[in-house]
Amino acid sequence: MAIQASDFAIGEFKFLRRLLLFHGRTNYIRIVDLIYYFFYKNFVFSITHFYYGFFNNFSGQTIIDDWLISCYNLIFTAFPLGARAALDHDIHPKDGQVAEIFQSFLYDDLKKNPIFTFKYFIFNLLRGIFHGLINFFFLYLTLRNNQIDGDGNIADMWYFSTSCYTNIIFVN
Predict the structure, then answer these.
(1) Which listed site, 93, 101, 154, 172, has its alpha carbon 20 to 30 Å from 43?
(2) How many degrees, rounded to 5, is the angle at CA 58 between CA 53 and CA 60?
């Protein structure tokens, strides 16, 4: 009766070892990568708006169009992370008996040397700030008062915005 009320059930205890050691390790690595990537990509995106605020006296005008902002998390950065989560394995499940032998050692290794550390988290945040800085000011200094076509036109707000957004997508 309890099995019918549960979300999932384990038929035999021999499956519990693989569930905890293999799938637990794989999910831990994926979640850590997700957290690092999430904060990094949002810092690169958000810090660009912060830098732009100095040029528009913090008026509230965004550098990137609203529909591109909406698409950023929804489309452009969700697919790479989903593909990596579905396809990436540090130990492939089909390795069979070799993976079965080393599961407990790999679990102990993650306990002794955790992947998610405060030091590496701060490193990812600083890396996002730095990449946003390079993206914004490289484009600003490159496009400022330089003509972009044969008619002598210079880059307007839309051109700068689209170039900045495209660079952010390629960096992520």
Answers:
(1) 154
(2) 100
Q: CA 109, CA 49: separation in Å to the nearest integer?
A: 40
Domain spans in the chain, listed from the N-terminal domain onward: 11-171
**89 or 42, higher pLDDT:** 42
Phi, psi angle pair for 129, to nearest 5°: -65, -45
Of the candidates 142, 134, 168, 160, the residue with the CA atom closest to the CA atom of residue 46: 168
Instruction: Please say if the pLDDT value at position 150 is more than 70.
Output: no
Q: How far apart are CA 34 and CA 116, in angstroms?
A: 11
Residue 96: pLDDT over 60 = no
Distance CA(140)–CA(157), nearest Å, equals 11
Residue 12 DSSP class: S
- pLDDT tens digit string along 101-144? 666 666 676 777 788 889 989 999 999 999 999 999 988 888 87
45, 161 in Cβ contact below 8 A? no
Query: Measuring CA to CA, which residue among 154, 148, 162 is closest to residue 69?
Result: 162
Amino acid (one-letter) located at 50: F
* Radius of gyration of the chain measured on its C-alpha atoms: 23
